[in-house]
Amino acid sequence: MRRSAIIGMQQTENGNSFWHWGGNNNDTHAFVIASEKQKSGVLIFTDSGNGHSIIPSIVEQAMGGKQPITAWINYESYNSPAKNLLRAISSEGIDAPLKRYLEK
What we know:
Elements: E1 6-12, E2 15-25, E3 28-35, E4 40-46, H1 55-63, H2 68-73, H3 81-92, H4 95-103
Antiparallel strand pairs: 1-2, 2-3, 3-4
Helix pairs in contact: 3-4
C-alpha cells in the first residue's frame, strides 16, 4: 500500500488555519482543515478513488470561501466537464455525449 500524508498551515482573510491531507491510500482519502479564529473545522473521509474531487466544494462551504490548500491539491472537481463526459460515456456510449461536449 502506498501511503502519503502532508500537514500544513495557510493564511486566509479569516485568519490562519491548519490542514492535513491524507493523500491517496488505494480507494480511501482523508482531509481535515480547522481554524482557531473561526472555531470551526471539517473532517472528510471518502471511500472512493475520486474522493478528493469533492473536497474543495465541501471545504469552501464549511469554511467560508476559497481555501489555498484546495488549489494546491489541484484535484479535478467531481463536476468538471471532463468527468461529466466520462460518466455520460459510461452510461450512454460515446456518440451522444461526445456530440454534446463538442457543442459547448
